[in-house]
Design brief:
With 215 residues, this protein is of the alpha/beta class. The chain has a single domain (35-59, 76-213), classed as Rossmann fold. Helix content is 26%, strand content 29%. It is built from five helices and ten strands. The protein has helices spanning 48-56, 98-108, 117-122, 138-150, 168-183; strands at 6-17, 20-32, 37-41, 63-68, 71-73, 83-86, 156-160, 187-191, 203-208, 211-213. Strands 6-7-8-3-9-10 form a six-stranded mixed beta sheet, sandwiched between helices. Strands 2-1-4-5 form a four-stranded antiparallel beta sheet. Bound molecules: adenosine-5'-triphosphate and magnesium ion. Adenosine-5'-triphosphate (ATP) is lined by residues 15, 17, 22, 24, 42, 44-50. Adenosine-5'-triphosphate binds at residues 15, 17, 22, 24, 42, 44-50.
């Protein structure tokens, strides 16, 4: 049996809030396979972003660990063509154009061939490649961050609320692009509340109070 592409193994992450301990993620084990679109749903505060941040290596779990192709890994050691992230706050560099922002992360990851234009066109941004983030709407900025994540054809893509600033037509464009990334073999884990996303997902994972709900 081949190992999953990526796993969270008994991952917990707590926060102190005054004298209280918040179990943002509580002993979550999750196996993620290539070519599958997973939708991570759950009420606000249920731990979706925290779990994505642990998988991305942006937060360390208090207990448990992350595995990549069956081996324990510090996700920060993975390249952008292994693992790409669309954060909830998209973080484009203001002095770079949309095209440069979309191309930047894959280039830092060493992929010199990456051409941003195709992803920008697919996401309805063809005319805005030379615009700066300040000149773009929030939804357009979010789509540039998605183009950036798709650069280099990541094996795994973690997207935190990638349609939160999109109208329905653009949400469908975004989800369709993620769906085609999965058709090319990428694993896509999408956190969010968007009911439209269910139509594009192969599997729905529900979190409540830091734990996965077993259906
Ligand atoms: N830095 C922090 N310090 C203290 N508590 C935190 C911190 N970050 C998150 N939390 C708490 O952890 C819990 C999970 O938060 P998280 O952001 O993962 O939820 P979420 O499911 O992504 O919510 P949303 O749908 O609103 O984005 C919440 O109770 C939140 O208040
Ligand atoms: Mg969140």
């Amino acid at each position: 049996m081949t190992a999953p592409l990526m796993s969270a193994v008994a991952v917990s992450r707590w926060y102190r809030r005054g004298s209280e301990t918040v179990h943002a993620v509580d002993r979550v084990t999750l196996h993620l396979e290539p070519g599958v679109v997973y939708l991570l749903q759950g009420p606000s505060g249920s731990g979706k972003t925290t779990l994505l941040n642990v998988l991305a290596g942006w937060e360390r779990p208090g207990e448990g660990h992350v595995e990549w192709r069956g081996e324990r890994v510090d996700p920060r050691s993975l390249t952008w063509s292994d693992l790409a992230v669309v954060p909830q706050r998209v973080g484009l560099l203001p002095e770079m154009t949309a095209g440069e922002n979309a191309a930047l992360a894959p280039r830092i990851g060493g992929d010199r061939r990456f051409e941003a234009t195709a992803s920008l066109i697919a996401l309805g941004l063809a005319d805005l490649e030379d615009s700066f983030p300040d000149e773009l709407s929030v939804g357009q900025q979010q789509r540039v961050a998605i183009a950036r994540a798709l650069g280099g054809g990541p094996a795994a893509l973690l997207a935190d609320e990638p349609t939160s600033s999109q109208d329905e037509d653009h949400a469908r464009i975004v989800l369709g692009v993620l769906r085609s990334a999965a058709a090319s073999g990428s694993m896509c884990l999408i956190a969010g509340h968007d009911p439209i996303a269910e139509e594009y997902a192969d599997a729905v994972i529900i979190m409540r109070d830091g734990s996965l709900v077993v259906s």
